Task: inverse folding
């Protein structure tokens, strides 16, 4: 089962994504801030990471840099989600080789489609 | 001249000449004078710094400095002198007036032509003019400061809007996602009524998002921070995609949504997201104000100048001539209060106008009350050379 790491400081969004992604057949692990993100990434070795951009104590780009600089997580696909609306975010996301960036509120079908595209094949629906 | 007593600093090495200036000035009955004297350039400079006179009478030929060297030394000591300097030169030492003025003198008088009248007038004029200049400079500085404060405030407002939007969108995302989870049956089956109600809740979330994004755009426009990033795109693709995304809404409302694109329309250079935003806004409005059974058509044709004209035509209730005049204005909705609940914040058309303006195009509306409306906008011909790559789509 493919594992997805969600790094997001809003626990309600984590809860919703958890329901959605588990229903789609993914295993989910989560972190509420950038510090915990690396602990979770190292412990769980996720196949993909969904990173919120604006978080207290270190933003999603910082997490992306750390993931890229860790040999075990350097190659995992990254999808950013953000409630920010700044024109340079897409460029920054591309700079860390993110596969997609979704503005909040996102359409969950689009997010799932991006995950499926990044992970190569649609998982078996539970 | 409102000042009745003026402090005049006389810098001249000749006591006789100093006495002449004093007497000539004192002949003017409309003004009192206090006199300060210096007999060399260096003592004159000290006096300028310490005594702050209202006006300086400066002999051009001083034992240690000439008048021009004095002015240059003074400029080094005092950034903006609070007093004017009138240069006086004796016979045989006449100075080019332009040269003296360029060096910073307020006026120039030849010593041998001095009279009570012309010296008095020169002093009063120079003091008046200098004070006006200082007042203007003060005003300019105040305006500059006010401008800086306003810019700072509007930047703070923009930042506030961004924070507000961020803080509202986060819980909105959770709310919308949980609604979607229910709608998708992930928490169990729903009956038809429950589905309908949750659908309304989800649409409401999307409406809030649109309004928040409009607020952010307006904040950007207000601080001149809304930029466009034009590239060549196929017009047909833009229109088809806009129609496809409104298709479910049109179907639900029982409206026939179609397009009609002239064969001569192909590529234009524009910011895809922003023009899509304009089109989405116009189509959305057309659908909102057209009753079931009506028709909304998106048309595109070339302009005579080689640009593109896009029109969104509806068979809705139309717009009054009064509304037509103001419909693209910022905060028009807030001013009128009419139908505010039906039409949202009313920022959409203002944003459309500004986006089209950024593209150097035009936007307008034709409408007859009761007979539908047509919103037009143009994209001018591209100034780009032949496009190297034409983007068919824009990725998420």
Result:
């Amino acid at each position: 089962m493919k594992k997805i790491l969600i790094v997001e400081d809003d626990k309600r969004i984590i809860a919703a994504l958890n329901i959605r992604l588990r229903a789609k057949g993914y295993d989910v692990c989560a972190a509420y801030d950038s510090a915990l993100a690396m602990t979770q990434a190292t412990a769980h070795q996720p196949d993909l990471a969904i990173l919120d951009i604006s978080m207290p104590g270190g933003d999603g780009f910082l997490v992306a840099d750390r993931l890229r600089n860790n040999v075990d997580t350097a190659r995992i696909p990254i999808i950013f989600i953000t409630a920010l609306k700044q024109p340079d975010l897409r460029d920054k996301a591309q700079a860390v080789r993110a596969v997609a960036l979704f503005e909040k509120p996102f359409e969950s079908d689009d997010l799932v489609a991006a995950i499926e595209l990044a992970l190569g094949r649609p998982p078996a629906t539970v | 001249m409102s000042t009745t007593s003026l402090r005049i600093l006389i810098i001249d090495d000749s006591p006789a000449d100093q006495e002449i200036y004093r007497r000539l000035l004192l002949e003017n009955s409309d003004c009192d004078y206090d006199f300060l004297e210096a007999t060399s350039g260096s003592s004159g400079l000290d006096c300028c710094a310490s005594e702050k006179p209202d006006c300086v009478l400066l002999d051009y030929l001083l034992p240690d400095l000439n008048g021009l060297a004095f002015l240059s030394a003074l400029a080094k000591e005092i950034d903006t002198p609070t007093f004017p300097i009138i240069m006086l030169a004796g016979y045989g030492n006449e100075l080019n007036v332009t040269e003296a003025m360029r060096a910073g003198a307020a006026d120039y008088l030849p010593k041998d032509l001095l009279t009570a009248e012309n010296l008095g007038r020169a002093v009063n004029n120079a003091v008046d003019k200098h004070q006006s200049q200082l007042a203007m400079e003060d005003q300019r500085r105040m305006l500059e400061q006010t401008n800086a404060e306003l810019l700072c405030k509007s930047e703070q407002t923009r930042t506030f809007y961004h924070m507000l939007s961020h803080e509202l969108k986060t819980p909105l995302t959770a709310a919308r996602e949980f609604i979607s989870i229910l709608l998708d049956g992930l928490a169990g089956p729903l009956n038809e009524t429950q589905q309908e109600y949750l659908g309304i809740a989800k649409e409401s979330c999307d409406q809030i998002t649109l309004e928040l994004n409009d607020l952010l755009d307006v904040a950007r426009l207000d601080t001149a921070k809304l930029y466009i990033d034009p590239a060549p795109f196929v017009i047909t693709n833009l229109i088809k995609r806009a129609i496809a995304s409104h298709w479910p809404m049109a179907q639900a409302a029982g409206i026939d949504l179609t397009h009609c694109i002239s064969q001569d329309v192909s590529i234009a250079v524009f910011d895809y997201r922003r023009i899509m935003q304009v089109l989405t806004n116009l189509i959305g409005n057309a659908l909102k104000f057209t009753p079931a059974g009506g028709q909304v058509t998106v048309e595109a044709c070339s302009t005579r100048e080689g640009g593109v004209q896009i029109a969104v035509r509806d068979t809705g209730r139309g717009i009054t001539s009064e509304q037509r005049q103001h419909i693209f204005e910022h905060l028009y909705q807030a001013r009128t209060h009419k139908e505010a609940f039906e039409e949202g914040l009313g920022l959409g058309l203002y944003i459309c106008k500004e986006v089209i303006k950024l593209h150097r195009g035009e936007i307008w509306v034709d409408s007859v009350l009761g007979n539908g409306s047509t919103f037009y906008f143009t994209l001018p011909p591209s100034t780009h050379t032949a496009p190297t790559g034409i983007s068919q789509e824009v990725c998420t």
